[in-house]
């Protein structure tokens, strides 16, 4: 018998490389399926934020030092609101990127800036000038720039 | 109307399939961001046996911004004013996008169980509350009976659903 291969189709799968020991929130939260989801938009880590169509590098994931992970676009939008005060939405600790995580590397510089700004806003709101309020126009523009 | 974010759809589905005891929230058919809410007064509170109607609206920025919630039923409570506006940290400065409709409504239910006259929204009520707590609670009970009482239960043989 002779076999002749006429056609080969390659299939690949991928997922964000989130260290396993960081997945402690699985089953801890009160909702959701088996998959890990972004604490903000509740879509899968490997899916997209609500504003993106294509998962992957165009809609990346980041790992917080508090072990809470989010779509970059989701957490960035949150940190740009004056309500956020630079805190993680899940545990309310000051949000920062976890060191030594490969998928965080491309975002470090941008996040430094956002977190710096959020901390300044925190000082402003603590001093009682404006605690409430939403995303202002400037923040939205920065957000657009970030998405590029 | 723009499409509804998946998160809101998921939340709505779960509110219907797995409701919180003592709380119901149903979206309007013509505006899925607008919910009719009712919360039962917590047991052993001044609001026991009352059913309080509220409206809840999810702004376009939700979940980056908190839902807007207001009591429609008149209520005598130091943290709720006569327009039904609610003084609750998670609805304002302590909002987090990790919170959701159900957790917000649970917080409101908890606020009914533990009025806080030291952080008042309705100043006159808070003053009454601090001056004479027993009298204030009696008044809250009276208002509950007056404005928040269930419609009479349907006859035992009739259909179990109200037509509201």
From TrEMBL, chain A:
Keywords: Cell cycle, Cell division, Metal-binding, Mitosis, Ubl conjugation pathway, Zinc, Zinc-finger
Record GO cellular component, one term: anaphase-promoting complex
GO molecular function term, any single one: zinc ion binding
InterPro entries associated with the record: RING-box_E3_Ubiquitin_Ligase (IPR051031), RING-H2_APC11 (IPR024991), Znf_RING (IPR001841), Znf_RING/FYVE/PHD (IPR013083)
CDD domains: RING-H2_APC11
Record keyword Metal-binding present: yes
Protein known as: Anaphase-promoting complex subunit 11
UniProtKB/TrEMBL annotation, chain B:
Keyword field contains Nucleotide-binding: yes
Residues in UBC core domain copies: 3-149
SUPFAM superfamilies named in the record: UBC-like (SSF54495)
Alphabetized UniProt keyword annotations: ATP-binding, Nucleotide-binding, Transferase, Ubl conjugation pathway
Single Gene Ontology MF annotation: ubiquitin conjugating enzyme activity
EC class: transferase
EC number annotated for this UniProt entry: 2.3.2.23
Residue numbers annotated as active site: 87 (glycyl thioester intermediate)
Keyword Transferase listed: yes
Leader sequence residues: none
Domain of life: Eukaryota
PROSITE patterns membership: UBC_1, UBC_2
Matches recorded under CDD domains: UBCc_UBE2N
Family named by the database record: Belongs to the ubiquitin-conjugating enzyme family.
Descriptive protein name: E2 ubiquitin-conjugating enzyme
Organism: Eremothecium cymbalariae (strain CBS 270.75 / DBVPG 7215 / KCTC 17166 / NRRL Y-17582)
């Amino acid at each position: 018998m002779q076999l002749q291969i006429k056609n080969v189709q390659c299939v690949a799968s991928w997922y964000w490389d989130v260290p396993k020991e960081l997945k402690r929130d699985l089953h801890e939260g009160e909702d959701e399926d088996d998959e890990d989801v972004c604490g903000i938009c509740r879509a899968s880590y490997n899916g997209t934020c609500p504003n993106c169509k294509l998962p992957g590098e165009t809609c990346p994931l980041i790992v917080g030092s508090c072990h809470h992970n989010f779509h970059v676009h989701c957490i960035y939008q949150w940190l740009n609101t004056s309500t956020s005060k630079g805190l993680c939405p899940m545990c309310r600790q000051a949000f920062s990127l976890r060191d030594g995580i490969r998928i965080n590397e491309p975002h470090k510089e941008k996040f430094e800036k956002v977190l710096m700004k959020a901390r300044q806003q925190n000082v402003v709101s603590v001093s009682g000038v404006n605690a409430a309020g939403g995303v202002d126009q400037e923040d939205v523009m920065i957000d657009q720039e970030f998405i590029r | 109307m723009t499409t509804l974010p998946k998160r809101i759809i998921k939340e709505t589905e779960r509110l219907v399939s797995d409701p919180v005891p003592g709380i119901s929230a149903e979206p309007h058919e013509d505006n899925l961001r607008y919910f009719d809410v009712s919360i039962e007064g917590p047991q052993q509170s001044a609001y026991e046996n009352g059913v309080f109607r509220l409206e809840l609206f999810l702004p376009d920025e939700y979940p980056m911004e908190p839902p807007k919630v207001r009591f429609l039923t008149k209520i005598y409570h130091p943290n709720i004013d006569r327009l039904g506006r609610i003084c609750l940290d998670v609805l304002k400065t302590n909002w987090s996008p990790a919170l959701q409709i159900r957790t917000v409504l649970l917080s409101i239910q908890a606020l009914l169980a533990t009025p806080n006259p030291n952080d008042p929204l309705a100043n006159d009520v808070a003053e009454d509350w601090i001056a004479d707590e027993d009298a204030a609670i009696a008044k809250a009970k009276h208002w509950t009976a007056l404005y928040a009482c269930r419609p009479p239960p349907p006859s035992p043989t009739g259909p179990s659903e109200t037509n509201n």
